[in-house]
Amino acid sequence: MDRLLFGDNQFFGINHMSEEKARAQAMRFQKTDAIMDVLDVAYDEGIRSFMCTTHDRIAKIADRVVPTRSATRSSSSTPACPMRTNTRMR
């Protein structure tokens, strides 16, 4: 596993530290092209692992990333499975 995973929270307006920043990120990444621009820069900087959630828009990103990266580059995706937060841990 890579030492650095690039996550998708910012693309969907999720920021656990700041609601204001979350709103700004949601506005910035309304279009898939804006997300792809950031993923391309991350890849160019050497990041090869992308952690994605089950967000509805992730399929549009995968539709664009997979054919491009499979044909010309190596990369990996790691799904992040949501947890039920109301379940008691044993």
Annotation keywords:
90 residues; alpha/beta; three-stranded parallel beta sheet; 3 strands
Report on the architecture of this protein.
- This protein is of the alpha/beta class and 90 residues long.
- It has one domain (6-79).
- 42% of the residues lie in helices and 11% in strands.
- The protein has helices at residues 19-28, 32-44, 58-72; strands at residues 6-7, 49-52, 76-79.
- Strands 1-2-3 form a three-stranded parallel β-sheet, with no helix packed on it.
- It is globular and about 35 Å long.
- The two termini are 28 Å apart.
- 7% of the residues are buried.
- Residues 85-90 have low confidence and may be disordered.
List the helices and strands and how they pair.
Blueprint: E1 6-7, H1 19-28, H2 32-44, E2 49-52, H3 58-72, E3 76-79
Parallel strand pairs: 1-2, 2-3
